[in-house]
Amino acid sequence: MRSSCPRHFPVHYAWIIVLSGFLTLFACLGLARFAYAMLLPGMRTDLALGYDRMGLISTANFIGYLVAVALAPRLLKRLRPRLTISLGLVLIAACMLTVSAASRFQLILICYALVGFGSGMANIPAMVLVSHWFRPVFRGRAAGLMISGNGVAIIFTGFLVPRLNAAFGTNGWRIGWLCLGGMVAGIALLVSWMLRNDPKSLGLEPLGETGPVSGPHSPVREQGQGKLMLLLGLLYLVFGATYMVYGTFIVTSMVEEYGLNEATAGFYWSLVGLLSIFSGIAFGVLSDRIGRKAGLALVFLVQSCAYLLAGSGLGEVSLILSIILYGFSVFAIPTIMAAAVGDFFGLQRAAMAFSLITFFFAAGQTVGPGLAGVLAEAVGSFSPAYFVAGGLTLLAALLALLLPGRTEV
């Protein structure tokens, strides 16, 4: 049966939760993390940062995220999702505003690590809410709609930052951090007002058709959950170690290796954002239909093509194709993972499972950009890093085929 909604509200409140999640990810990842790629060239020039220090700043962010992931189960148990998300966004806003006025590498490093911690505090509870508010038939599309907030933020920063740089010169990156930090603060207030921890608090049931316990989306048997969680964790680790290498350095590659001006690079980065809006939704709906196993394998294949094309150095046409493939697939993996933990582990263990596999993801993205920056500093190009990323995602596509199918759970 379908759950009802209060007469005074025209839609099920689960869709308001999706909107809250959209805004949360727009702020905690889209503005706080992906804007870094656009602000990086200006910061590098003004502060005379090498590739290695650029990578270390990004790595510090991921270390903060990793710590938040480790603490997420305890934070969620004590604070519940609504308060955890709100506090995470407030921390992000305060640290971004501090970065806007910072001149020392060490202070930026610390602040961006705290931004990462706040991102973990906000992101994980937001995605866990999908399992609380939606039944399996809607989980993929709900997660995809939330994650599309990242793409909208990428479009926004891709147009905003070059214009701030043009208007304010060497101080453009500072104004950028200032504006984005202020936006995150406003979103923190709005999301805190909109969020609710679970449907029961409003007298509702999760949205979607109920089905038999033994249906195609029923949880995996308990004795197989440990191996399954490890496999999902390894897949998420590969994703974390690869997608942010591209996300952190592709704008710098476009400017310094492909010879594009900053405005053109910003336009292409905005194209990533435009396409990524649909990546989570499209692959989320697809995985609702063909299963999480086939969906993950397909996404990893698409990402492999994107990374290998970026490293090929064949010219602007191959770069554009790489950007299209990356943008169309970049947020598909988190979407499918958010849906998969609810399907495979059930509502009671979804938060713990998502936190654990996200720990793998955070570990991967902590290592990836730092190693890519060191490698680029040594050889003078990011091509080897893109090739390594492409090889790892090809391996992940094969590993994804080991996941349970619809009739194996």
TrEMBL record:
Residues 13-408 form the Major facilitator superfamily (MFS) profile domain. Pfam families: MFS_4 (PF06779). InterPro entries: MFS_4, MFS_dom, MFS_trans_sf. It comes from the Bacteria. The chain crosses the membrane at residues 12-36, 56-76, 83-101, 107-130, 142-161, 173-195, 228-246, 266-287, 294-314, 320-341, 353-376, 382-403. PROSITE patterns: MFS (PS50850), PROKAR_LIPOPROTEIN (PS51257). Keywords: Membrane, Transmembrane, Transmembrane helix. One of its GO terms (cellular component) is plasma membrane. The keyword Membrane applies. PANTHER family: PTHR23537, SUGAR TRANSPORTER. GO terms for molecular function: transmembrane transporter activity. This is MFS transporter. It comes from Geothermobacter hydrogeniphilus.
